[in-house]
């Protein structure tokens, strides 16, 4: 059932958003990776996830807001059962023993890949906000895992912020060259480099 629904979601994503995939120095394979992308719509992780080959989708977990996806009904089913998402509380209780980074590293484990959005919140689709520190911290904690930039083009027009009904529109996902945090690279320097890696994919 889960596989059937997953195939349906992939098909719908490609119809709604065009589903054009470009690979610029990126070759899909089954090693662990962290895909990081710009963020303008609730459909962002769906399009990135759907752009991966089936074997990679099965091992790739989107990171998503718990308050949005962990609601009774279809959202929870899709988020937990179909996407196997790593759900992060955007306003964690102070008494919680786990930090957001603990949850991400646990979700990554020894075999999964992640899809994350370093801006931390959805933008307007025309600009990319400065990145928060999570990507840097993940890269430092797991230097063995490749970081893959991904640029989502035009998806904010498919599901604009504040809207709930998708509008068919041509969109695309461009994957860039793998990168790592340099051994002595400072946080801000790396975050700027990672953000620029996504901006460079716009020309494709």
Set out the fold topology.
Layout (H helix, E strand, L loop, with lengths): L1 H16 L2 E4 L9 E5 L6 H7 L3 H6 E6 H4 L4 H9 L3 E3 L11 H9 L4 E4 L17 H8 L4 E8 L1 H4 L13 E4 L11 H14 L4
Parallel strand pairs: 1-7, 2-5, 2-6, 3-4, 3-5
Antiparallel strand pairs: 6-7
Question: What does the model show?
Answer:
- The protein has 204 residues and is of the alpha/beta class.
- The chain has a single domain, classed as Glycerol-3-phosphate (1)-acyltransferase.
- It contains 9 helices and 7 strands.
- A 7-stranded mixed β-sheet has the order 1-7-6-2-5-3-4, with helices on both faces.
- Helix 1 crosses helix 2.
- The longest helix has 16 residues.
- The protein is globular, with a radius of gyration of 16 Å.
- The protein starts with a helix and ends with a helix.
- About 3% of the residues have low confidence.
Features:
9 helices, alpha/beta, Glycerol-3-phosphate (1)-acyltransferase, seven-stranded mixed beta sheet, globular, 204 residues, single chain, 38% helix
* Low-confidence sequence ranges: 163-168
Return the CATH architecture: 3-Layer(aba) Sandwich
CATH topology: Glycerol-3-phosphate (1)-acyltransferase
Distance between the ends:
36 Å
Shape: globular
State the CATH class.
Answer: Alpha Beta
Helicity range = 25-40%
- Multimeric organization: single chain
Largest sheet: number of strands, sense, barrel closure: 7 strands, mixed
User: What is the number of E strands?
Assistant: 7
Query: For the residues shown, what is the average pLDDT?
Result: 84
Give the number of domains.
1
Q: What is the topology, as strand order, of the major beta sheet?
A: 1-7-6-2-5-3-4
Number of helices: 9
- Strand fraction equals 15-25%
């Amino acid at each position: 059932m889960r596989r059937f629904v997953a195939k349906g979601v992939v098909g719908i994503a490609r119809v709604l958003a065009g589903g054009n995939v470009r690979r610029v120095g990126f070759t899909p394979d089954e090693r662990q990776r962290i895909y990081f992308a710009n963020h303008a719509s609730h459909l962002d992780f769906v399009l990135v996830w759907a752009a991966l080959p089936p074997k990679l989708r099965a091992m790739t977990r989107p990171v998503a807001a718990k308050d949005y996806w962990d609601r009774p009904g279809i959202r929870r089913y899709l988020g937990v059962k179909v996407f196997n998402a790593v759900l992060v509380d955007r306003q964690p209780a102070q008494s919680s023993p786990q930090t957001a980074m603990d949850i991400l590293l646990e979700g990554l484990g020894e075999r999964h890949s992640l899809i994350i959005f370093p801006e931390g919140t959805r933008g307007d689709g025309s600009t990319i906000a400065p990145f928060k520190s999570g990507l840097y911290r993940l890269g430092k904690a797991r230097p063995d895992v490749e970081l893959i930039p991904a640029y989502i083009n035009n998806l904010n027009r498919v599901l604009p912020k504040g809207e709930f009904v998708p509008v068919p529109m041509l969109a695309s996902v461009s994957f860039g060259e793998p990168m790592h945090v340099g051994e002595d690279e400072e946080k801000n320097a790396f975050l700027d480099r990672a953000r620029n890696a996504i901006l460079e994919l716009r020309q494709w």
